[in-house]
Design goal:
Layout (H helix, E strand, L loop, with lengths): L6 E4 L5 H14 L7 H8 L1 H6 L5 E6 L5 E8 L10 H6 L5 E9 L8 H16 L4 E6 L6 H6 L3 E5 L11 E5 L19
Parallel strand pairs: 4-5
Antiparallel strand pairs: 1-2, 2-3, 3-4, 5-7, 6-7
């Protein structure tokens, strides 16, 4: 399939089982951890995590055949301390931080620009929502391709591999928040009265 053979849209409740399958397959296959409730609880309750709360969203990438092949989510929860470093949690407080989550694409659909398109849509959502001052994400560099992908889009703010003991080995990123488009200016021209 080509880049243009996919559509990206906001998930509906009908998409949740397929989106959940993409996410669970990823945590089992790519992360090697399997489902860990304290890390992946949002995957079980996608509606409660991303569809119901205001200022949150879940996107799906859909192939020409209607199959959900990718996911991407955004919520207003900053990184918690612990397990994340205190200075990272302080820099990205909940409520004003858009955190990117679950940007996953099935292996057979990768390298077609889907993850980049999903992230662009999440950033447009964050800018349009207003109230977000920063966009944050973290990634596990052990996942093939994850760290180079995020380095191409974002700036590293902390690499736990450089900490004494290596921390969790996670890399924390700041993603540039696009500026919202200004409202159109309406100019009224009145005929001069004489």
């Amino acid at each position: 399939m080509r880049h243009s053979d996919y559509s990206i849209r906001t998930a509906t409740s009908a998409d949740l089982p397929d989106a959940r399958a993409v996410m669970l397959d990823t945590v089992y296959r790519d992360f090697g951890t399997g489902y860990v409730p304290r890390w992946h609880g949002d995957i079980i309750d996608l509606a409660g995590a991303y569809l119901v709360p205001e200022r949150h969203t879940l996107l799906v990438a859909v192939g020409a055949d209607g199959e959900v092949v990718g996911t991407a989510a955004l919520d207003s929860r900053g990184p918690a301390h612990p397990p994340n470093p205190a200075h990272v949690a302080e820099r990205y407080p909940s409520g004003v931080t858009a955190q990117l989550r679950r940007v996953y694409v099935r292996p057979e659909h990768r390298r077609r620009g889907l993850a980049r398109r999903l992230v662009e849509e999440l950033l447009a959502f964050a800018a349009a929502e207003g109230g977000y001052r920063a966009v944050y994400l973290h990634t596990d560099p052990a996942v093939t391709g994850a760290e180079p992908f995020w380095r191409s889009l974002a700036e590293v703010v902390h690499d736990e591999r450089e900490d004494v003991g290596g921390g969790q080995g996670i890399v924390h990123f700041d993603v540039p928040l696009p500026l919202p488009l200004p409202a159109p200016v309406t100019v009224s021209v009145r005929a001069a009265q004489t």
